[in-house]
Design a protein that fits this description.
By secondary structure, the protein is α+β, with helices and mostly antiparallel strands. It contains two helices and five strands, in the order αβββββα.
Length: 115
């Protein structure tokens, strides 16, 4: 997989805002910090998905953003994930919109339509 090209703070903030809007529209709520180190939790059709965001700096101040995701029960994950239930996404300048669109489509598929 090609490593994403870095992008700036404004793009990262826009990316995180877009992803946050996607998950909140589908029913995500903030996690209790005592319960989880993840920032958000989202009830899916088969599981609970926990999410948080992290800006990442490489050696030369190169910025990327990660969406850290983990299913509570990997056996019942709504999409393919690691054995530990992780389902992470990485974004940089080259794949910013593609990651948002793919993430939105997956979240919409694995959650019920809000009422």
């Amino acid at each position: 997989m090609k490593k994403p090209t870095p992008f700036g703070r404004k793009q990262i903030q826009a990316f995180v805002k877009s992803v946050r809007e996607i998950i909140v529209a589908r029913g995500a709520v903030r996690c209790d910090p005592k319960e989880s180190h993840y920032e958000w939790k989202l009830k899916t059709k088969r599981n609970v998905l926990r999410l948080s965001f992290e800006e990442y700096f490489e050696r030369n101040s190169i910025m990327q953003v990660y969406i850290h995701c983990q299913f509570d029960d990997p056996e019942k994950a709504d999409v393919a994930c690691s054995a530990s239930g992780k389902w992470n996404h990485y974004a940089g300048k080259d794949n910013f919109m593609r990651v948002i669109e793919s993430f939105r489509d997956d979240i919409n598929d694995m959650t019920e339509e809000p009422k």
